[in-house]
Every structure is written in structure tokens, then in C-alpha cells.
Amino acid sequence: MNVHVSAGENADIRHDWTRAEIEALFALPFSELLFRAQTLHRKYFDAREVQVSTLLSIKTGGCPEDCAYCPQSAHFETGVKAEKLMAVDAVLKEAQAAKDGGATRFCMGAAWRSPKDRDLDKVCAMVEGVKAMGMETCVTLGMLNAAQAERLKESGLDYYNHNLDTSPEFYGEVITTRTYQDRLDTLSHVREAGISVCCGGIVGMGEDLNDRAGMIETLANLPQHPESVPINMLVQVEGTPLSEEQTLSPLDFVRTIAVARIVMPASMVRLSAGREEMSDETQALCFLAGANSIFYGPQLLTTANPARDRDRHLMDRLGLVPMPA
Ligand code: SAM
Ligand code: DTB
Ligand code: SF4
């Protein structure tokens, strides 16, 4: 990571944020908020650089969880067909294509509540294979126990993605099949195994500003900030309970990115799902607000992401360059 200042003990890196302080950041005049976010972004990173990851759904659909945003939940009719875990060879072929396309990290996602041990053997082989290609690795497989996190670490895993998704208060409106504490437990197993943490959430689910502040408060007050903080704009998928939700104003999305950058200045803030529906100008504001990583390639897990040439063109016009691994 191209951090210009060590992320050790310093006044910028705090774990004692209050909800009121974070709400006050959201309430700043837009230019003041972006100025503060930019200032910290430039202190910790080269503001021209954007980390580029490619996602692959290695096990799609049929998930027993009821996350109200998710096209892969078996609870909703969304037209996503349940598939089996992909073969290791097929995954490695996709990883090579991602590397050839310019990605430095390969993120593999599975629609599981938690992995079975037999499945984990295969995922570990995928991680080993992707590492051997010289790419960083990330997986998101649902809940993990301590032993599973250890096994993934031994296979060479760099990052584990597990999102808090929203505030503790709003969480129950979105997911009933596992608790907020379950998520925090998985995050601590990942951390204890020595794997870097990728953890963020979704906005635009009908939450209010206090919930957006509550999500960021929880992330910032974890014992260690997640190295990577994905901020997803809800992708509304027909058949999910949130498909008709009122869309969030792009400026409120930009504010969320800026606040995440300010309270977790040394973390990578990922402008995640929702870019396909976003204007180039909104994305430009997100980069200005401190976002410094994206998913690259035409598909997220089951929904669309901008085509590679649209992203290359956007990065060229903004003078952004891929971050070296
Ligand atoms: N099943 C695993 C889990 O939930 O941890 C891993 C895959 S899950 C699809 C990964 C993340 O994708 C979710 O935590 C959620 O934040 C995000 N996500 C899923 N559907 C989304 C949507 N429609 N819009 C935005 N983000 C979404
Ligand atoms: C994350 O926070 N966003 C990515 C990644 N982590 C795994 C997933 C977005 C999924 C969007 C809906 C879909 O494509 O199925
Ligand atoms: Fe399953 Fe993950 Fe989708 Fe929730 S977000 S339904 S756990 S795939």
C-alpha cells in the first residue's frame, strides 16, 4: 500500500468516534467536507492512484440468507440461477484474464451463509493458484470460524471481505437470518488469523443519515480500521424487497465516501457496487472525496459493472492511474 505516513499511533487514526461527531461531518458544507477528505487522502495516498480489483462469483445463487438487497438469496425470485462451486481450473482461467486486463487483485465471492470444510479445500486451492500468478487475493464466503480463517491464511489469502452493511439499528430491517454480532465475530476471526480486513456496507437501502453515520462509526471504532472499506450504492434488483426503494441522491453518496475517508484516512475506500448506474461526474466526485479503489470488469457478482473501456476512458480523463500492487 502506498501510504505516505505510517498508520501507527497518530491523531488522524482514531477509534473513539461518536455518532454525533460523524453526523457533524455529514452536515458540513459540501466544499468543506470534500476539502477535509482531500487533505487526508493526500496525506496518506497518492491521490492519482486507484487500486483495481476484479470480482468473480465462484458460487452463485441459492443462498439461505435473507439479505433484502441481494439477488442471490433463495428467499426471493430474481432470476438468478443457483449454481455449484466452480472448478479450480475455470477460476484460474478467469483470474488470468483479470490479470491480463490490468487487475492487481482478484476477489472471489460465494453465495454461502458460511463455507463447508470440503468447499474450503477448493477455495484454498483457488487462492494458492491466484497467488502463484502474482495477484493479490480476496474472498468473501460468508461467516467464518477461527479455524476456517486460519486455513485461508495458510493458503496465502491477503483479504477477506465481510461487510457490516449498515448501522446496528437498521440491520434488522435488512437481514434476519444472522446477527450484527455474527458479523463482528467473523471479522475478529479474520483479524486474528492475520488476514487483512475488507469491510464496509451499502447505502440507499432506505436508511437515514443517522444509520449511515452509525455504519461508519462501527467501522471506525473496530480495534483496527479495515484495510479496505467498500461503500456500495444499492443496485436495485427486481424481485428483492429493496427493488423499489427510493434512490439515494448522488451527493449523499459522495458525502458517505468523504466521511469514510476522513474517519479512516489510511484505509482504501472502495467505490464499489452501483457505478454502472452512476454518471462519470458522480464518480469523479467520489474520487475527489477520497475513493481510491474500484471493481474493474463488466460484471460484479451477478449484476453489471462498467465496461473496461468506459473505465479506462474515465481514468484517462481524470488523470487517474492504476495503483501498483
Ligand atoms: N455471501 C457472502 C456474504 O454475504 O458475506 C459473500 C457475498 S455478498 C454478495 C457480498 C456483499 O455484496 C454483501 O455484503 C453486500 O454488501 C454486497 N451486495 C450484495 N448485493 C448487493 C446489491 N444489490 N447492491 C449493492 N451491494 C450488494
Ligand atoms: C462488496 O462490498 N461489494 C461487492 C464485493 N464486496 C463482493 C459485491 C457487490 C455485489 C453487487 C450485486 C451483485 O452483482 O450480485
Ligand atoms: Fe447470501 Fe451474501 Fe447475498 Fe446475503 S449477501 S443473500 S449472505 S450471497
Question: What is the structure about, briefly put?
Answer:
The chain is of the alpha/beta class and about 325 residues long.
How would you describe the overall organization of this protein?
By secondary structure, the protein is of the alpha/beta class. It is 39% helix and 14% strand. The chain is built from 11 helices and 10 strands. The chain has helices at residues 19-26, 30-44, 88-101, 117-132, 146-154, 168-174, 180-192, 209-220, 250-263, 280-288, 308-318; strands spanning 49-59, 105-110, 136-140, 159-161, 196-198, 201-203, 228-233, 268-271, 293-295, 321-322. Strands 1, 2, 3, 4, 5, 6, 7, 8, 9 and 10 form a 10-stranded parallel beta sheet that branches. Helix 8 (209-220) links the parallel strand 6 (201-203) and strand 7 (228-233). Helix 1 crosses helix 8 (209-220), helix 5 packs across helix 7 (180-192) and helix 8 packs parallel to helix 9. The mean pLDDT is 96. It binds S-adenosylmethionine, 6-(5-methyl-2-OXO-imidazolidin-4-yl)-hexanoic acid (DTB) and iron/sulfur cluster. Residues 55, 71, 109, 140, 161, 163, 200, 230, 232, 235, 272-273, 300-303 line the site of 6-(5-methyl-2-OXO-imidazolidin-4-yl)-hexanoic acid (DTB).
List keywords for this structure.
alpha/beta, 10 strands, ten-stranded parallel beta sheet, binds 6-(5-methyl-2-OXO-imidazolidin-4-yl)-hexanoic acid, binds S-adenosylmethionine, 325 residues, binds iron/sulfur cluster
